[in-house]
Amino acid sequence: MSAFVEALGILADPVLIAAILVSAAYGLVVGAIPGLSATMAIALMVPITFFMDPAPAIGAVVTASAMAVFAGDLPATLLRIPGTPGSAAYTEEAYAMTRKGEAGRALSISLIGSVLGGLFGSAVLVLVAPFLAQFALSFSSIEYFWLGCLGLSCAAVVAGDSRLKGFISLLIGMFLATIGLDVIAGQPRFTFGLVEFSGGIGIIPVMIGMFAIPELIRGATSRQTDRRDGVAVSFAGSFRQALSDIWRYRIGALRGMCSGTLVGALPGAGAGTAAWISMAISRRLSREPEKFGTGHPEGLIEASASNNSAMSGAWVPALVFGIPGDPVTAIAIGVLFMKGMTPGPQVFIHSQALIYALFMIFFIANLLMLAYGWAAIRASGYILRVPTRYISPVILLFCIVGAFAINNSTLAIVVLVGAGLLGLAMESARIPIAPAILGLVLGDVVERNFLISMMKSQGDLVVFFSRPLAAVLGATTLTIWLAPVAWRFLRKLSKNPKDKANA
Amino acid sequence: MTNCTVKPSSVSARNDQTMGKADLIAGVMAALAGVAILVGSTSIPQGSLGNLGPSLFPRLIGVGLAIAGGILAIGGLRSATAQNPFQLSRADVARGAAVPAAILAYLAIYHMAGFPLAGFVVVSGLSLLLTRRLRASILLGVFSVAAIQIIFVMGLGVPLDAGLLQGVLGS
């Protein structure tokens, strides 16, 4: 109890309050800039945390990351430029809503979904952190391999009409993930002798290129120079409508929060995987799957809730065992070390008040998101009022500089233009882009864990079913893969006797 | 006056045929990419069963792309016509090509003259092409470069080369 009171005292510190308020605005602005992700927002603020006490430093990191993850939905919804790999899962759906004149509704859904997801993830973090961390730690490379495969299976769901085209797109993304030094032996692959490619192709330039460049090219070629002509930009009533949407799809929202927290707590899986899995589950279990891709809010609700709950979930293994759940918590662990707090079970005993204060900051940050996010949504309405022919060149420059800022390398700009032309070619052939991004995100996870597992088992494939959890995940994945084939085969079999009878 | 109406079914059939041509091209391209990946992965160590090499996944991806591309191409061949699937006028193509061309121009100018000039040329040039308004395009270029200079260079510390304006901007 005394630790709780002490935590309240820490929270009353004006420096901490100022750090939270400023970092919230910072996270929102940086996350909303095309090309700048939540990870980059946190990485860029590390030098500033040098000069802060532990509580304001960690408070600033938590607040800025929560805001930046939501802010990634702003360019995704308004400009079709996903801010984070997670928001790429529902970019097409949110942008379709914008084209229908429902940008306010889409953004309000993202905001409320993010706030609810963040609060849910924070509650889970407070209540069952040690238990969840234990569960996450029981995952070996085998379970991660199956989890990656399960994630890749989502490609079939997000692919839309043609599974074959979705599969081709997925393979393109997986190939891009193989570029660079290989994950086990450090062997260069498809680097063309360029040292800059050793670390692989950055996901951000590819993501911006594939989504934004085709949109900019389309905007330039269109005779109707403003693609948003006739689109209403009124945001009136959108918040209330979003609330009613979320209430209507409350089961999906809850499902997104639960799966997001769980997947987020798995080290290496992160919010990106969680949002994709949630989007796929939402479509699969929906009563109106045919509406997905046309600007339907159902998947957006589940995936945006999942995205932010995963962010909170990623802090579970980070705090309990010092194992980062995603790149943001990896940087945060560095800040904790820097401030003399070694993450692990001991931190719950020796720095109890600080941990309680940290938990409270999670709730404050997510509640602040509601106010800051709403202001950002209102302000973003101005973007929709600017004619496309004026905004396109500015967006292009932001995309170029954003891609450059990842590694301060102009090679990222070459990747940006290459990915853009590839995305345009894929769109022209109606090959969906989303599975390629999924392949790029998860290709490395699947390959690394497959090779590690095979090394451990000396080439014995039975190892992939040797543990109960792995067997369950493996059976689920194989069922998802084989069920459509088996279903088609059975339908053919059942039709044949009828055909024979008719003949 | 002739009443020219098009039946929806014929439009749909024509779209299918057009997509068939697009599928054929996309399928062939995917299959060729798969073969290229397979050829490229021959130079990567293969490893053994107990110690699988780094070429395993590229090979699997190459085979997958070749097969999937082949299936798509065959499907497209069945419904393809001689119609051009990408119906764009020359002016449209030129305006569309301006976007990747602007990025390449940025790269070239950035290395020679630094960010402010490269950014200005990209924004003003593209804006002029799209709006045909010189003064507005110049203003847009100046303000965009100034905004990025403030946010990225001064705010976030991104080392964008000031190039010719090194002395003026002090970086």
Question: Could you name the key traits of this structure?
Answer:
heterodimer; A: about 500 residues; mainly alpha; globular; B: 6 helices; disordered N terminus
Secondary-structure map:
The complex is a heterodimer of chains A (503) and B (171).
Chain A: H1 2-11, H2 14-32, H3 38-49, H4 54-71, H5 73-79, H6 91-99, H7 103-137, H8 141-158, H9 163-178, E1 180-181, E2 188-189, H10 203-221, H11 238-248, H12 250-264, H13 270-285, H14 297-313, H15 315-321, H16 327-338, H17 347-350, H18 352-385, H19 388-407, H20 411-428, H21 434-456, H22 468-502
Antiparallel strand pairs in A: 1-2
Chain B: H1 8-40, H2 56-79, H3 90-113, H4 115-131, H5 134-155, H6 166-169
Helix pairs in contact in B: 1-2, 3-4, 4-5
Written account of the structure:
- The complex is a heterodimer of chains A (503) and B (171).
- With 503 residues, chain A is mainly alpha-helical.
- Chain A has helices spanning 2-11, 14-32, 38-49, 54-71, 73-79, 91-99, 103-137, 141-158, 163-178, 203-221, 238-248, 250-264, 270-285, 297-313, 315-321, 327-338, 347-350, 352-385, 388-407, 411-428, 434-456, 468-502; strands at 180-181, 188-189.
- Chain A has a two-stranded antiparallel sheet.
- The radius of gyration of chain A is 23 Å and the shape is globular.
- In chain A, 60% of the residues are buried.
- With 171 residues, chain B is mainly alpha-helical.
- Chain B has helices at residues 8-40, 56-79, 90-113, 115-131, 134-155, 166-169.
- The radius of gyration of chain B is 25 Å and the shape is flat.
- The chains are: A mainly alpha (503), B mainly alpha (171).
- Chains A and B meet through helix 9, helix 10, helix 19, helix 20 and helix 21 of A and helix 1, helix 2, helix 3, helix 4 and helix 5 of B.
